[in-house]
Design brief:
The chain is an alpha+beta fold and 339 residues long. The chain folds into two domains: 85 residues; 236 residues, Bira Bifunctional Protein, Domain 2 (BirA Bifunctional Protein, domain 2). Helix content is 40%, strand content 21%. Strands 1-5-6-10-9-8-7 form a seven-stranded mixed β-sheet, with helices on both faces. A three-stranded antiparallel β-sheet has the order 2-4-3. Bound molecules: 3,4-dihydroxyphenylalanine (DAH). 3,4-dihydroxyphenylalanine binds next to strand 9 and strand 10. Tetramer of two alpha and two beta subunits. It comes from Phocaeicola plebeius. GO terms for molecular function: ATP binding; magnesium ion binding; phenylalanine-tRNA ligase activity; tRNA binding. One of its GO terms (cellular component) is cytoplasm.
Length: 339
Amino acid sequence: MLAKIEQLLQEVKGLTAQNPEELEALRIKYLSKKGAINALMADFRNVPAEQKKEVGMKLNELKNLAQERIATLKEAFDNQDNGAAELDLTRTAYPVNLGTRHPLTIVRNEIIDIFSRMGFTIADGPEVEDDWHVFSSMNFAEDHPARDMQDTFFIESHPDIILRTHTSSVQSRVMEVSQPPIRVICPGRVYRNEAISYRAHCFFHQVEGLYIDKNVSFTDLKQVLLQFAQEMFGPETKIRLRPSYFPFTEPSAEMDISCDICGGEGCPFCKYTGWVEILGCGMVDPAVLEANGIDSKVYTGYAFGMGVERITNLKYKVKDLRMFSENDTRFLEEFESAN
Ligand code: DAH
């Protein structure tokens, strides 16, 4: 009996299994009711009394070792299983944070949305433009200061090719290929040779508007801009138009809205005037219509142009223009809820 126990002890010490099925077979072989150890237990009563102590201890040792060994092997298989279940090989290696729309995109889309509902369609044009579309067709005199090196980026070796300084160039692009009625807005990026500071940048964004038809009047312009201002800044918003000058409009005006911080009372934001400027506008100069192939005796039109950064600053109180192009995610994430 002792020799049999000794043999099983050696076997059990070296037990291994390749898979859970093999392990189960071993458990049945050694530890089940009909297993080898139980069979020895059953024989135990036949052991002579003087050997009972020694054989009993050995038998217990065998049983404990077998249980321990099989439990250890089982644990190894269990861990392997869990590992496989937790490891999802289709997952991306890094957590993916959802991006947010850029504040300028949010505001540009809102501007587009408001004018779309008033029947305007979107027109597009190139950022690298020629002098004709940016200046000459827009009635800029040959010696107009805006053509100066100070403002305009020229493409080296091509004095006629420039980065557009305003989206008014798209007005010309639209007029030269279509006849009234024309009702478009032109969102886009523009460039100016300015020193970068909190209030100026070498590129920014504008939305241009153009409406040409028979009998278009300044009243139409004012009504559309009032509608825009109240949708953008709230139904209490007031507007005022101040006479101004642009080469491509006559008469020209600049539009202010009532300061939405103090409601027109006067505060540091509006420099105690109660008003903040938001855009330029006017009736399209007949010379511009003619230069672009539209009969100024039959048609009249209005135009307006606004800076998207300016509107965004007013709406979200961003004080430093440079924030828009620095891609600091702490700034960009602040607009998460506006998306
Ligand atoms: N192009 C002007 C600028 O860049 C903005 C502007 C003013 C556009 C009046 C217009 C307009 O269409 O009528 O400052």
